[in-house]
Design brief:
seven-stranded antiparallel sheet, about 100 residues, mainly beta, Lipocalin
Length: about 100
């Protein structure tokens, strides 16, 4: 992940090794910071969007750590919505460490 912060705005790119196709995907990042709080969204090149919110902390070794919760929504075909809409939103947690 590459993030640039200008003022309170975040931009960049995020590459994930996990996708439905088994291949990595890269999406554009847009978001905001407020002190040590951050929120950012990735628009993937497939029918999915992921949003993260979190807080920057400092680990015991002095490294920057970003602890986040995320939610991802993905398209469910219209014909499948009555039975599969529940599968359109996933949630989890990520921890990012500055390299």
């Amino acid at each position: 992940m590459f993030l640039a912060v200008v003022g309170n705005k975040v931009s960049g790119s995020y590459t994930t090794a996990k996708s439905g196709s088994g291949k990595s995907l890269t999406g554009d990042v847009a978001g905001f910071v407020n002190g040590d709080l951050i929120s950012f969204v990735v628009a993937w090149p497939v029918a999915a969007i992921t949003a993260w919110v979190g807080q920057l902390t400092t680990a015991a070794d002095g490294s920057d750590v970003l602890d986040t919760l995320w939610q991802m929504t993905q398209n469910v075909a219209d014909a499948e919505e009555p039975d599969d809409m529940w599968a359109s939103v996933n949630a989890g947690a990520d921890q990012f460490v500055r390299e």
